[in-house]
């Protein structure tokens, strides 16, 4: 059976607590590339110690950074994982078996979808839309490119793809506060995408989009089966949705506030 070489790409920024586990889980790959956007901690030192190649590329966006990494991979077949994800031995064996059985002319299939399983609040989350969360992560780069929105980038693959059985493991948030801060960042970025698509602020969406998100994740996608963590996930998902549309209103209101604001006399005031 022929050996099909594989590159693994990981984008990073200050991931010293997690990057070693991610790299070690793919130590069986032929090429491991870290693309860092300016870490100030020990991320790059740890990556090099664990045998990864390192490139530094200034941050331009999630999809942009992943496309840069994919273009600098040594081999055509590329597996992308995040710094807080890791590949189990079962998934590694499944990937290796599929790649080594591929025919090269023509390339078939052009990519694989991997289910992702997330560990959060002391348990593996199996409902609420978190699992199975099938993602295109293993592809032949000639047939795949990351989209480049502000947030929630996707790897678009041209051609036939196959679903793998074993999940990619995801160590999501260390605390509830971490999830809230991440949701805050993504909600801001999501509101920028709404502006780019020309959406206007909507009271209806501000009120009902969050409510529907809770119903969808907790009831329709059975998040209630994950107990208290499932409830917290659904509440946070609804809150994130609310913030995204609230930020859209803020973008409209703030320029008006600034235009109507009374200039501050800094010389004769105690404003800090």
The total count of helices amounts to: 7
Structural class: alpha/beta
Element order: H for helix, E for strand: EHEHEHEEHEEEEEEEHHH
CA-atom Rg in angstroms: 21 Å
Shape: globular
CATH architecture of the largest domain: Alpha-Beta Complex
CATH superfamily of the largest domain: Spore Coat Polysaccharide Biosynthesis Protein SpsA, Chain A
Give the count of structural domains.
2
What are the low-pLDDT stretches, counting only 5+ consecutive residues below 50? 262-272
Number of strands: 12
Mean pLDDT: 92
Strand content: 15-25%
CATH class category name of the largest domain? Alpha Beta
End-to-end separation: 70 Å
Q: Which percent bin holds the helix content?
A: 40-55%
Query: In the CATH scheme, what's the topology name of the largest domain?
Result: Spore Coat Polysaccharide Biosynthesis Protein SpsA, Chain A
Which oligomeric form is depicted? Answer: single chain
Describe this structure in words.
With 272 residues, the chain is an alpha/beta fold. The chain folds into two domains: 7-171, Spore Coat Polysaccharide Biosynthesis Protein SpsA, Chain A (Alpha-Beta Complex), CATH 3.90.550; 176-260, no CATH class. The chain has seven helices and twelve strands. The protein has helices at 19-25, 43-49, 62-71, 89-100, 176-196, 203-220, 227-260, and strands at 7-12, 31-36, 53-56, 77-80, 85-87, 111-120, 123-125, 133-140, 144-146, 155-157, 161-163, 168-171. The strands form two sheets. Strands 1, 2, 3, 4, 5, 6, 7, 8, 11 and 12 form a ten-stranded mixed beta sheet that branches. Strands 9-10 form a two-stranded antiparallel sheet. A hairpin with an 8-residue loop joins strand 9 and strand 10 (155-157). Helix 5 crosses helix 7 (227-260) and helix 6 (203-220) packs antiparallel against helix 7 (227-260). The protein is globular. It starts with 6 loop residues before the first strand and ends in a 12-residue tail after the last helix. The model is unreliable at 262-272 (pLDDT under 50).
């Amino acid at each position: 059976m022929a050996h099909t070489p594989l590159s693994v790409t990981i984008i990073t920024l200050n991931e010293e607590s997690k990057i070693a586990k991610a790299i070690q889980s793919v130590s069986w790959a032929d090429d491991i590339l870290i693309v860092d956007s300016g870490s100030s901690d020990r991320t790059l030192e740890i990556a090099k110690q664990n045998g990864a190649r390192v490139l530094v590329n200034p941050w331009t966006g999630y999809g942009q950074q992943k496309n840069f990494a994919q273009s600098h991979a040594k081999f055509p077949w590329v597996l992308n994982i995040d710094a807080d994800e890791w590949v189990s031995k079962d998934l590694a064996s499944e990937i290796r078996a599929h790649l080594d059985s591929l025919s090269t002319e023509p390339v078939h299939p052009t990519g694989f979808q991997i289910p992702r399983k997330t560990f959060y609040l002391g348990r593996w989350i199996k409902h609420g839309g978190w699992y199975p969360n099938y993602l295109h992560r293993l592809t032949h780069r000639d047939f795949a490119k990351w989209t480049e929105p502000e947030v929630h980038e996707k790897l678009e693959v041209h051609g036939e793809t196959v679903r793998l059985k074993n999940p990619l493991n995801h160590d999501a948030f260390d605390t509830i506060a971490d999830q809230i801060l991440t949701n805050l960042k993504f909600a801001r970025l999501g509101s920028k995408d709404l502006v780019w698509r020309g959406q206007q602020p909507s009271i209806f969406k501000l009120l009902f989009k969050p409510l529907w998100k809770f119903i969808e994740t907790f009831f329709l996608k059975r998040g209630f089966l994950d107990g208290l963590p499932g409830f917290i996930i659904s509440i946070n998902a609804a809150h994130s949705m609310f913030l995204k549309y609230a930020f859209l209103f803020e973008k409209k209101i703030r320029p008006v506030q600034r235009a109507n604001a009374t200039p501050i006399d800094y010389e004769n005031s105690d404003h800090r």
